[in-house]
Design brief:
The chain is of the alpha/beta class. It contains 13 helices and 21 strands. It has three domains: about 170 residues, FAD/NAD(P)-binding domain (3-Layer(bba) Sandwich), CATH 3.50.50.60; about 55 residues, no CATH class; about 90 residues, D-Amino Acid Oxidase, Chain A, domain 2 (2-Layer Sandwich), CATH 3.30.9. It starts with 20 loop residues before the first strand and ends with a helix.
């Protein structure tokens, strides 16, 4: 079992670090989907933009991800209604959907080769109780807010998913899967082709009123956009509101068409389940099964050397239970860190004394793209309509005091359990 990131290929990208002082109108910190989308939007407004990235564009959460492009993230639509009310929930869902469409439009307009796979989303119940309390509630909520979907009971689900171990599900269209690393690399290449300066292998050591400092140079700019997801606290931003969770992604050997039909008798779908620490899977364009998950022990821990084998065994058991006829072999398995807030909603704002705008805890590629656009609009248009919801100073289920008492990972785990239990 190879522990390297399958998307990266055999050779990491060549990087060109910043080695001098340069000037720009805006410097974007972070080369994932959020940062590159922000840079793309700023450039479209005619601004001179420089991007600095610690490793290489797509090296972080974006490029290690499963490539699910759906507005659903850690919070379903019914969760949003519960926490924010119908009006705000619809606004947030449309915000995430704008990220879906932004990624789709970029793929189309730039003709990006990133394994674009049109696949409906399918949210499945792991028990009868979860079907009644989660799936049916999601269906009612979607109908109430005008979003079409189809609900399947356990018997009907077998017609679109080759497993009788699930207890029903809800399906909706308009979503797709991609190789997000290839997307980031292609978008970076296009921005460079259009004249943008992108400095990889360039960590930011300090934010200042003049711009950003790096080990071998500085970018002087009147505005700074920091889109580093779970790494925001490293630069002194949103420390109480952002942590990371670890998820693992496995890639199988190439499956035969007959084997794929044992999973998806009809259309290929993007699937995730109702477990708090859920499993998710889809088929890539070349016919590999992409399967993700984690366990509680590794999810919130910074270091867990035995996690890979433990999670691999869990994923194998999952496939064996749900698709017993499938000879499932893991070729690659790797971890990825995902930024989260205590209530699963993203974080965005402005530094109180510096010209620094930031966003993180995206928990989903469409949210990352939408947040990149939002930060760009804060700089160019002073957008602020979602600032209150995204503020790192908002009230959370458990605050700084508990983080100090039991530690940040445990406090975030408790908070997430409470948020989902309320749902």
């Amino acid at each position: 079992m190879d522990s390297s990131v399958y998307w990266y290929g055999s050779e990491p990208p060549h990087v060109e670090p910043l080695r001098t002082a340069v000037t720009a109108e805006v410097v974007v910190v972070g080369g994932g989907i959020a940062g590159l989308t922000c840079a793309q939007s700023l450039a479209a407004h005619g601004l001179d933009v420089a991007v600095v990235e610690r490793a290489f564009c797509g090296a972080g959460a974006s490029g290690k991800s499963s490539g699910f492009i759906t507005p659903d993230s850690e919070l379903e639509l019914s969760d949003l209604v519960l926490h924010y009310g119908q009006s705000r929930a619809k606004e947030l869902w449309e915000f995430a959907t704008s990220g879906v469409e932004r990624i789709r439009a970029t793929i189309r307009d730039l003709n990006i080769d990133c394994d674009y796979q049109i696949q409906d989303s399918l949210f499945v119940a792991r028990s009868t109780g979860m079907f009644r309390t989660i799936i049916e509630l999601e269906q009612r909520t979607r109908g109430l807010l005008g979003y079409p979907s189809t609900v399947y009971d356990r018997a009907a689900l077998a017609g679109i998913l080759g497993s009788r171990a699930y207890h029903g599900g809800i399906r909706y269209a308009g979503t797709f899967g991609i190789n997000a690393f290839a997307y980031c690399r292609a978008l970076r290449a296009e921005l460079v082709r259009r004249g943008m300066r992108v400095f990889e292998g360039t960590p930011v050591t300090r934010l200042s009123a003049r711009g950003v400092e790096t080990p071998a140079g500085m970018v002087t700019a009147p505005a700074v956009a920091v889109l580093t997801d779970h790494d925001l606290p490293e630069l002194g931003l949103a420390a109480r509101a952002v942590h990371q969770v670890r998820s693992y992604l496995a890639v199988s050997r190439v499956l035969t068409n007959q084997e794929i039909r044992t999973i998806f008798p009809e259309d290929r779908l993007m699937v995730w389940d109702t477990d708090l620490i859920y499993q998710y899977f889809r088929i890539t364009g070349e016919g590999r099964l992409l399967l993700g998950g984690a366990d509680l022990r590794s999810m919130y821990s910074r270091r867990d050397h035995a996690a890979s084998e433990r999670v691999a065994a869990k994923l194998r058991r999952h496939v064996s239970r749900h698709f017993p006829s499938l000879d499932f072999e893991i070729e690659h398995l790797w971890p990825g860190l995902i930024g989260v807030s205590p209530d699963f909603a993203p974080v965005a704002g402005r530094h109180p004394s510096l010209p620094v705008y930031f966003a993180g805890a995206c928990a989903g590629l469409p949210w990352a793209a939408a947040l990149g656009e939002y930060v760009a609009q804060k700089i160019t248009e002073r957008r602020s309509d979602l600032d209150e919801l995204f503020s790192p100073e908002r009230s959370f289920p458990f605050g700084v005091r508990l983080q100090r008492l039991i530690g940040k990972p445990a406090a975030f785990a408790l908070s997430h359990g409470l948020v989902k239990h309320r749902s």
